[in-house]
Amino acid sequence: MTEITDLGVKAIRDGVAAGEFSAVEVAEAFNANVAAAAVLNAFIVATPEAALDAAKSTDAKRAKGEDL
User: Fold this and answer.
1) What residues contact residue 57 under an 8 Å CB cut-off, 6+ apart?
2) Does residue 68 fall inside a structural domain?
3) Are 26 and 1 in contact (CB under 8 A)?
4) Mean pLDDT across the stretch 36-64?
5) pLDDT above 90 covers what percent of the chain?
């Protein structure tokens, strides 16, 4: 199975819209990659909580049948 973080933006969008995985799963996968790369100092600011909040909002919209 392909890792979420290996997918392109369109595949992630389509996967969330189809319910193949949740936006929270996407955020958690990318947050894990950012945390693992911390030693590289590749990111000026990491905001994992903001990413999860946005993902939860997206999942709530999908659950209500709203446009993503």
Assistant:
1) none
2) no
3) no
4) 95
5) 87
* CA dist., res. 11 & res. 9, Å (int): 6
pTM: 0.89
52 domain-assigned: yes
Q: Are 28 and 52 in contact (CB under 8 A)?
A: yes
Distance between CA atoms of residues 14 and 20, nearest Å = 8
Counted domains in the chain: 1
Q: In the structure encoding, which two tokens stand for residue 10, read together?
A: 């369109």
* DSSP category for residue 6: G
Alpha-carbon 9 to chain mean position: 10
pLDDT band of residue 15 (cuts 50, 70, 90) is very high
pLDDT value at 1 more than 80: no
